[in-house]
Amino acid sequence: MSTPSLSDLEMDAWRGFLEAHRRVMDVLEDELRTDQDLPLAWYDVMVQLSEAPERTRRMQDLADAVLLSKSGLTRLVDRMERAGMVVREPCAGDRRGINCRLTGAGMQRLIDASPTHLAGVREHFVDLLEPGEAAILARALGRIAERACGDG
């Protein structure tokens, strides 16, 4: 079996993707914590719930949907529930399933924090792209994500 190899350009692209992701996520985390006293992981969970019907998702589906680390989601939701941002409820028709629902307070917190987060996404990502690059990047990363999920 031969050892796989990457060209210098391919390795630069891979490392650049990893470094850019880490640095941008760190900056967005810092901005949300500083300006809104809100962890980025909470923001992610609130976005996922806000986009779901009745602002509710099964915990397992929520774990699959969060864009950040799935590890510790139960503990994260515990903290969010104590803060009044979400509530857990039994799934109708499934005694073992648990739903997580965004509360009114959680939705308001998301609305209040969104301008900070979206301004950061614009400043640290969108505004750095040349015309046409957003479409190319969206297509390329979409293909990569689909393949990684086994959908492609």
Please write out the topology.
Layout: H1 8-36, H2 40-50, E1 56-58, H3 59-65, H4 73-82, E2 86-91, E3 94-102, H5 104-124, H6 133-148
Antiparallel strand pairs: 1-3, 2-3
Helix pairs in contact: 1-5, 2-5
> First CA to last CA: what distance?
25 Å
Number of distinct beta strands: 3
| Low confidence ranges | none
Backbone CA Rg: 18 Å
Label the structural class. Answer: mainly alpha
Instruction: Going across the biggest sheet, name each strand in turn.
Output: 1-3-2
| Main sheet characteristics | 3 strands, antiparallel
Question: What are the secondary-structure elements, in order, as H or E?
Answer: HHEHHEEHH
Helix amount = 55-70%
Mean pLDDT over the residues:
93
In oligomeric terms, what are we looking at?
single chain
Helical element count?
6
Hey, roughly how much beta strand do the residues contain?
Answer: 5-15%
* Inertia-based shape: globular
Mind explaining what this structure looks like?
The chain has 152 residues and is mainly alpha-helical. It is 62% helix and 12% strand. The chain has a three-stranded antiparallel sheet. The longest helix has 29 residues, at 8-36. It is globular and about 50 Å long. The mean pLDDT is 93.
